[in-house]
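REQUEST FORM: STRUCTURE PREDICTION
Request ID: SP-0412
Submitted by: Lab K.M.
Chain count: 1
Length (residues): 121
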Amino acid sequence: MSGETEIQNLKSRDPFAEADEDSGQTTQTQEYIHIRIQQRNGRKTLTTVQGIPSKFDHKKILKVIKKTFACNGTIISDTESKGMGEVIQLQGDHRSKIRDFLIDAEEGLGLDEKTIKVHGF
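STATUS: Completed
RESULT:
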């Protein structure tokens, strides 16, 4: 055995970085918007939206979402979300409605559909 044996398992790799389709290499350059659902107690759920670009006013977005979807919500700041940026948190399961709102150019933000990832059960 040679002295320059390389152990593959110990390479640092970001498991949340998306794999590039062409080369299989992971890239962190493109910013994605993540829509997740979290189970609270019983049938209660929370929908979180992370990664909305900072060029948009998060407070105004939250105000429109709350009025349109008839739910309550809050903005979790950078310090509370442990480096994930500002996260919009809504009461209830609104994953599909939030996705449609972010894509809609007339009444929503008009973002690219490819940058939105919906997670959950």
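NOTES: The radius of gyration is 18 Å.
Reviewed by: T.R.
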